[in-house]
Amino acid sequence: MNFSEKLLRATEKHHSWLCIGLDPDLDPLPLVLKKRSGADAIVEFNRRIIEATQDLVCAYKPNSAFYEALGPHGLEILTRTREVIPREIPVILDAKRGDIANTARKYAQSAFEVYKFDAITVNPYMGWDSIEPFLAYKERAVFLLCRTSNPGARDFQDLNCSGVALYQVVAEKVKEWSRKGAGELALVAGATYPEELQIVREIIGEELMILVPGVGAQEGDLAKAVRSAANSERQRAIINVSRSILYASAEEDFAQAARREAQRLRDEINQCLE
Amino acid sequence: MNFSEKLLRATEKHHSWLCIGLDPDLDPLPLVLKKRSGADAIVEFNRRIIEATQDLVCAYKPNSAFYEALGPHGLEILTRTREVIPREIPVILDAKRGDIANTARKYAQSAFEVYKFDAITVNPYMGWDSIEPFLAYKERAVFLLCRTSNPGARDFQDLNCSGVALYQVVAEKVKEWSRKGAGELALVAGATYPEELQIVREIIGEELMILVPGVGAQEGDLAKAVRSAANSERQRAIINVSRSILYASAEEDFAQAARREAQRLRDEINQCLE
């Protein structure tokens, strides 16, 4: 089963385009877990978040940085987290990797063979041969950064390249390259820039997936973002939320609070798509 | 001591602008080591390469991908490798990271606090707020990708942005931003494109360091690259070589062969700088 099929099944089953970012941070970790040792606390935190939300999401997205910051042991926490997620829910590793082909093959091996993720985010700056090794995996997907959700997105992604912005050139390339690999190509465009998100959807057409971060803590406008990113069938826009779900409560009830927030967001996304 | 001071001391002491990329790959690993278990073999390989070359280099540069591909244990190998390198030789983590500020802080924490590297390579695509967290560390350096050494560098980095190529805009930003952080900003420009390398040096001026990959297996022209990257005092161009040193021999004598190749390259670089 390819990535889109797996994702669409989860979407239909859970009636959801919500993806939860699993970015555990020791500082805002609920007090009830802080008594445990660091690693166990994080695995337990992730486990309870996943168990409380797994019937409400179309995907999960752990960001590698939060695990790497814990040293070698953090990658074991990532492995254990991956194992807790039900097999039928796709997991996107947010790693934003990119390197020359020989090295990109190692990153692809890590993400797809060692940790067995369904998809990975990749930075486009180094061009096609830095992306191709990830697309050699048939049932996996690559989400290329296009227009990111942060303020610095303006520094380079908006540069005028012979009449179109750099991020638009990236979107055009994603469309062109989407026919070249065995794996599936998709892209990342932030909720904080809904106009650009709409332009990106117009460029790439109906088929390709867009992963939309920036809702919640980053304060992107959910309704505008959902409508701009979805295709004409109101499909294929994966809305990622991390902090506002994970840290909905700092108390004993953090998992139930996360569930309530996830449910609210899922329903709001669905309303926007009606 | 800041990064440049540390690097310049190693340069003077070893009369060298050569940096060795520590990118251990199980496939071309010398036969003599293959009998050991994977992890031990790689630590031993790195240890023998470092011991054989440490008086010939100005820096080492492990690429994170080669360690990540070995799973959580690979990061322990990276830690053990870091410990083998003498304290006075700077170590650049080649990780090409880049993410929103909140996440970039985690990557910076990983590179500088957990693994204690002296510098890291960072991808510029996401702009200033994705770079700033790395520059919060006073005695460390950030090497921003500018014009990379791979064929795909042309896909985006050469795009015409209102009269100048994208990589030139990045170089201009590196110069501008180099005054903004506590840490030191530098850049990466590949040996495979010497004309572009020269343009980059002209843009950034005399002070900033350039890390130059692409010599050796990637077949960049060493003489042209060295002369293009160095400033007018024939300084501040760090020439990185990985595979052609690491795998100079697949036999028992691999460390001596690596030493000979490193010595030859160091001397050739110095001749180009005379």
From TrEMBL, chains A, B:
Active-site residues, record numbering mapped to chain: K96 (proton donor)
EC assignment: 4.1.1.23
CDD domains attached to this UniProt entry: OMP_decarboxylase_like
Keywords recorded for this protein, A-Z: Decarboxylase, Lyase, Pyrimidine biosynthesis
Domain Orotidine 5'-phosphate decarboxylase span(s) in chain numbering: 17-258
Matches recorded under HAMAP family: OMPdecase_type2 (MF_01215)
PANTHER family, sorted: OROTIDINE 5'-PHOSPHATE DECARBOXYLASE
Family note: Belongs to the OMP decarboxylase family. Type 2 subfamily.
Name of the molecule in the record: Orotidine 5'-phosphate decarboxylase
Gene that specifies this protein: pyrF
